[in-house]
Every structure is written in structure tokens, then in C-alpha cells.
TrEMBL record, chain A:
PROSITE patterns: ABC_TM1. This is Cellobiose ABC transporter membrane protein. It is a multi-pass membrane protein. The lineage of its organism: Bacteria, Bacillati, Actinomycetota, Actinomycetes, Micrococcales. It comes from Humibacillus xanthopallidus. Keywords: Cell membrane, Membrane, Transmembrane, Transmembrane helix, Transport. GO terms for biological process: transmembrane transport. Belongs to the binding-protein-dependent transport system permease family.
UniProtKB/TrEMBL annotation, chain B:
GO terms for biological process: transmembrane transport. One of its GO terms (cellular component) is plasma membrane. It comes from Humibacillus xanthopallidus. It is a multi-pass membrane protein. Keywords: Cell membrane, Membrane, Transmembrane, Transmembrane helix, Transport. The chain crosses the membrane at residues 21-44, 82-103, 115-136, 166-187, 218-237, 275-296. Belongs to the binding-protein-dependent transport system permease family. This is Cellobiose ABC transporter membrane protein. Its main location: membrane. It is found in: Cell membrane. The keyword Transmembrane applies. InterPro entries: ABC_transporter_permease (IPR051393), MetI-like (IPR000515), MetI-like_sf (IPR035906). CDD domains: TM_PBP2. It comes from the Bacteria.
Amino acid sequence: MRAKVIRRTQASPAAYVFLIVVLLASAFPLWWSFVIGSKDAAAIVQDPYSFVPGGHFIQNAATVVTTVPFWKALGNSIIVSTTVSLLVVLFSAMAGFAFAKLRFRGRGGLLVFVIATMAVPTQLGIVPLFIVMSKLGWIGSLWAVIVPSAVSAFGVFWMTQYLQEALPDELIEASRVDGASTLRTFWSIALPAVRPGAAMLGLFTFIATWTNFFWPFIILDPGNPTLPVALQQLQAAYFVDYSLVLNGVVLMALPLIVLFVFAGKQLVSGIMQGAVKG
Amino acid sequence: MAPRPAWRRRLTRADEKASPYAYISPFFILFGVVGLFPLLYTAWVSLHKWSLIGGQGAFVGLKNYTDVLGQPYFWNALKNTVSIFLLSSVPQIIIALLIAAALDSNLRGRTFWRMGVLLPYVLAPVAVALIFSDLFGDKFGLVNHLLGLVGIDPIQWHKEVLPSHVAIATMVNFRWIGYNALIFLAAMQAVPRDYYEAALIDGAGRVRTFFSITIPQLRATIIFVIVTSTIGGLQIFDEPRMYDQYGLGGADRQWQTLTLYLYQLGWTQKNFGRAAAVAWMLFLIIVVFAIINFLLTRRIASKGSR
């Protein structure tokens, strides 16, 4: 492995210059929203193109959190994203365990079905989904956001692949010979083995759910939003005053920025191991 | 070890037979209810008069389809969707490949660069749309200011059709380029290094090896990225919805996409029948696009490898 790395072509100065430009472009929009979000409207009119932040961030933030139900939205986003991630990981680990390590009729066909559904744009079923939710009386409820997101064909596929590699068949056999039930085998052998893959899946599901807008926007009430829906409300209230809108953008991006600082390395390796768009 | 009693053996056998189905059932039941059923039922709704408030009405056959297809709005939305999709997917893949090639060289501080290109991914599309809507402001936007410094007249990013598409495509590109670059990087690292050494011995330069070794070797990955970005790109909603505060896709529907149109039919006009018809047609368009993409990319890539 080491030898391979050393033999790779040495990075040219041009590669560094190019990557520095890319990194500046990556970070600039976030910096820009901090700059604008920390000024008052008068300062923006005076010098709209300065890259230096102003001193009004806290004041603007105080206006933002009282204009839209910010704390409610933050709480809802935490509840929804956490619950969805846990459910997706659990259901995917269960199905992945069965597909990877148990023998049953229809296994091959069902697995092909799962893989095929990964490409199906289920978002286009929103009209009937809305009808179903109204029949259940769930319109405006967080359940209406959580339940439809709790399944992921990609998650099942990912866990199946992970378990095929991470868990030797001999371990399953040995556990059977010892008289362990399937549940016991799943709980004390498969689940511990799948932990790193599960963490990765959970991380990507969390981000995808946190940033999801379309369906929550349709189904949730203005008084009970998630963060992206609250951001839309902020825009509706203050479109012309970008100091407040972009202040809200920074506030709402902060939790994922913190997550990125701690888990960015894992995200990079997750994508490189084959995680797919959420 | 004492032989197990008969009931115990039967229990074990029942466990082995039934358990697999129990383990896969949460996924399949839930997927059936919230994924497959709504998608298929969309076709049923689209054949009826159906209102958001009043519910199911009379069976009208294909009337919702002919109504929608008879409106210029549908064709306008289709045109906008395809235009934004092309403006976002083509540059996205080219730039992502270039970044991946740069990341694939022997860099100092690899993790830093890789994390850096991924940063935009953790920003919500809604947030990205708001930031870029400001940057692309018609009057006081930073982009127009910078263009002015090099002597270009201000562009009406929120009024003219093509500039608004460029702005929206820029948001998509911003969020996904780094992500796709990492996918390409992983594929590049799987290319056997001997290929490059052989090319080096033959006197091929960096550019030459990139086109005649790296790209053909990445064929499967490129197809994968194109197909997933087609499925996502043709359903685009968040960015055009947030590009102004009204969310209708511009005063003259300059950037109204099909999903935005679908939303407007269903939830503003409360006409679920027509919304379902648009959803079903968009579904078919996505399938057709995915197949065309797949065939095209396969052909181009296999030509390249010859």
C-alpha cells in the first residue's frame, strides 16, 4: 500500500493552485452569508461588496429566532433526523442480515427488486402519499415526515454488501451449532459486526434528512416546521433584507458544520467506499 | 451434549424457515406503503377528477393528460427542467473529474483537501439557493459587480430565462461537484498503477494518459454518476422554489421546473388529478432519460477505450 502511494505521480504546483481555487469556491458562499448576516441593512447599502464581517450578528440572530419558530424547528429537525437515521439503520441492518447471511426462497429475486427500486424516483408519489397522510390524520405531524423516510433501498443494499464482507459465514454456523436462535445471532453477532457500516449509513441518512425540504414543506404546518421549512418562512418574511435571511442561513447551517468538523473524515471515506446520494 | 428434545428441534426449524422473512418484512412492508403504492396509485389518481379538498371525483380517462399537454406551461416547465439539468450535469461531471485528477496526485495533507471539496455537501439546498440568490442579485449582486469590474454589463439573473437557469445550475453544481469528485477519486485509485507506468514508458504525457487511460477505466463510475444525477436533476425543486420569495418560478415562469409546476397544480390550484398526471409523465421522462444516458455513455466510453 505504501509503495503504491509513493509511486503515484508527484503533485504538481498546478494541482495545488487548482485545489486552492476549488477550496475558496467551496468555502466562499458560507463566508459570504456570515459577512452579510453580521451587518445591519444600512451597512450593506453603504458598502455592499465588502468581504469583512460587521458587528451585528447577535442582534440579527435575535430577530431571526423571533420571526420564525427557530427553536421549535431546531428541535423538530433533531427529532426527525435522529429517528429517521435510527429506523433506516435498524431496518436496513435487519434486511441486510437476512439477504447476506440467511437462506430463504425468493432471496435472489427480492434482492434484485431492492436494487432496482434504488433508481425509482419515489418522490413522484407525493400526491397519493398526501392522500394517505390525510386519511391517517397525520398532516402537520412529524410522523408524516418520519415514516416515509424510514425506508431506504440503498441502506438495505449497503448493509447486505457490508455484512457479506464483514461477517464470516463460519461465525453464523458456529452460533447455530451452539443452539442460538436467529434473533440471538442477529443481536449478538451481526449487529456488533455491522457497527462501522451502520454508523456510516446513519451519518448520511442524518444529513439527507436534515437538509430535506420538498416533502416537509408540503406536509408540515407553518407553526411546526423543520429548519429548511423555517428558512423558507424567513425568506417569505424578509426577502429584501438579506442581512436577516443570510443570518438565518448561517444559524441553520451551524449544526451540520459542527458535524462536518467532527465527522468530515468519515464522510469522505464513506463516499469513497460507495455511499450514494441520499 | 445431550440430544435436543423434539419440540426444540421443531422450534429451531420454524425459526430458520420463518425468520428471514421477518427480517426483511419491515423494509418491504414500509416500502410498499410509502414508496411503491403511492407511485402506482398516482396513475389511478391521474385518471380521475380529484381535488385536494373534495377528494376523488368522476373517472375522466386521459383528460388530465390532454389538459396538461395542451397548456404551454407544461412544455415551458419541461424545457426549463431539461435546460437546468444540462447546465448542471455536464459541467458538474467535467469539473468533478478534474478535481478528482488533482486529488489523485500525491498531495500533502490529503484529508484536508478531500474534506475541503466536500464542505458544500453539508449545506441544505434551501440554504445554498438563498445564498446564490443574493450573489446573483440583479441590481446589487456580487456577481454583477465583479462582471462590471471587467467591463461586462449587469445581467438580469432573475428576469431573463437563460441567466436564471445558469444561476440555478450553479447552485446544483456547487453542492454536488465535490461529492462526485470523491466518487471519481475512489474509482481512479482502483485503476492499476502499471497502466500509468506503461504509458509513461511509451512517452505519453499527463493529458494523454488522463484521456486514454483514466477516463475509459472510469466508465462504470461515470455512468453511475450520470444516471443518479439524471434521476435527481430532473426532479429539481428546492433551488428553483427558493430562487425568489414567490416560489412560482419567476414572474413569467422563467425557471419553473416540472416539479414546481406539479406542486403548483396540486397545492395551489388544488387539482390533484392534473398534478398526478404531471408526476406520472415526469416519471416516464426520467426513465427514458436514464436509459438514453446509459446507452450514450456506454457507447462514448467504449469508443474511448478502443
